[in-house]
Records
---
Amino acid sequence: MASAAAPAFHQSSLDSSSGGGAALNAPKPVSVKELLDSSTDSSTAIPTNYNTSSFLNEPAVSEPDDQESIPVIDFGLLTSPDPNQRSQAVQDLTKACEEWGFFLLVNHGVPESLMKETVEACDRFLNQTMEEKLKFAGRDVWEPIRFGTSIDIKVAANCFLWRDFLKLFVHPHFNAPTKPEGLSEVVQEYSKRTRQVVQELLRGISEGLGMERGFIEKAMNFESGFQLFAANLYPPCPQPELAMGIPAHADHGLLTILIQNGVDGLQIQHKGKWFSAKPIPNSLVVNTADQLDIFTNGKYKSIMHRAVVNSKSARMSIAVAHGPSLDTEVSPSPELMEKEGRPAVFKPMKYKEYMELQQTKPTPGVPCSELIRIRTP
């Protein structure tokens, strides 16, 4: 997607001076993209209801030292028929999950052309007319096709994020808009291919835990697991230091796979500091998420990450979250607890209920898993 110059805003028309975030709460909500397209003034100040700096107060990004970088896992070695190569790849995967919770996956078998087509197809959807996108607008998180703009942040109800999105439920039942042409087909193929990748990663993770290959798959009912496809558009922002694409959060599933359009914006937390995650070409960014954290009783922690914006180029990211089946009750694995010699640190909860908890009681900067953590006296 081509870069776009940072636009100007007509401040008086976009501010939520009435106290209700008028533009986004109107009967026909306006997306961030439409706010940009409608701007006519020479001012470069963003609307006040997009200024998150006063309450998020998230620390600045740090530069990693020479000894630290996001691990790279070679999927080809992980699936190799050579037992020595596979054993080494499993060890590398285990170390990445324990120490980082993020890794770059190369030689994964998902065609570069399919990755590019998926990003471009979602870009076309989010650049359609508002009339077309509003057919799928709504706040119900269980809508299988949902277009939205920003999210409400509970500690500042009138403040919005610099993001437009499309969310699709793609497994166990596939859902997608019929427009633009080709979107449904490419999303379905990409979702299928990433699911195959995640299935193999879960097998490698199971081996690394000292269990049989299908250990996590079976326990999480992965065959009927919930797969959520999310396309995020972050338009260029005149004051990126004040706005936020998505604040610090942890994902709700088992593993999440992310690709983007070549514009950086993902930042991850590692050892208490924030680092920019710069994927190498044609790699998949993979991170461990809450249900894996819970199932491994905290051994593989769900890592906080965020999306920042910039003033020069629109960023598009595609995140596909892979989780258990919605009716699976996830709790620390008894087998792993016995192996590790530790008591459970999380309460059991059905995956669907966990997702609803994450939506209704979010606290910026705090993983939802903290709400079900067992507190010791």
---
Amino acid sequence: MGTAGGRAHRLLGAGCAFSAGAAMPMYKVRPFHGGGGAVLAEQLPTCMYRLHSLHSQRPPADSPPTQEEVDPSLQALEARQELILKRLYELKSAVDGLSKMTQTPDADIDVTNIIQTNDCSLTANGADLDVMLGKDYGALKDVVINASPSLPPLSLLVLHNLLCEHYKILSAVHTHSSVKSVPENLLKCFGEQTKKQPRHEYQLGFTLIWKDVPKPQMKFSIQTMCPIEGEGNIARFLFSLLGQKYNAVTSTLIDSWVDTAIFQLREGSSKEKGAVLRSMNAALGKAVWLVGNELTLADIVAWSVLQQTGSANAAPANVQKWMKSCENLAPFSSILKLLKNFTDLKLNYDDSFLML
């Protein structure tokens, strides 16, 4: 006990002596700012990478932001990636289109005759197909139509010619196995075969398949879209791609003339056909075209039906004059030549059959 107490007394005395004596020297810290405001240069280790100071060269507050330069190699890499993605989208679209066509009756694999026709020129005043049909990146929109060669849908051929004046179209004619033979002029209804360009350079695909069907059928590349049947309905769809806009009254009049031409002038009785011709003659006595002051779908369908039924020569005077106005336009004149060749081939075929 005495020994412990003495030891504690000696430690306490040493502590007091330490406090009373001189302070023990400590390590020195260099000041961050030297004399005169000069900043001391710090010696950084060489084993670490250096970063540029964010505060050493700060631009003025009122100066506009500068755009960081982009590495040219990075730009080239991004451009190459965009090109690869575009080609992949095109390939995917082509595969999807083939898979769809093999599952539907409007484009069978066992075609017996395939003709790729001339490409149509592109003009700057064409409507935007992406706005009307939806944008599909890198994909070609395809219209596939089935029609019987015994009753060629002349209005659809006229509309094809009109579309060629607005868009760059990849046209094709096929023959289905349900049809034994098709006149040569119908196989070349889109023109002679020319050099085919890459698919992605076209805006619209237009394929006509001569097939044994009761009425024309059409399918579009949108898989959720129901098939469209009837020459009048298909003509409405194709004419809408021209981007024409009408008010409600004009649109109703056009639809009325289209239905009248299809269901009465072509499929009606002799009495109904006579009534339609008289109505057309009265309307054309007041105007150059059936509706309004310009060519519309009503004129295209009515002219085509008159040619199909062979009623053109027996039409009244105003109708005859109107038909001449239509035939002076290039989209109609080429179809008129096609129709004449088709009639001559049909007459020759009938004569040969009677001789047998």
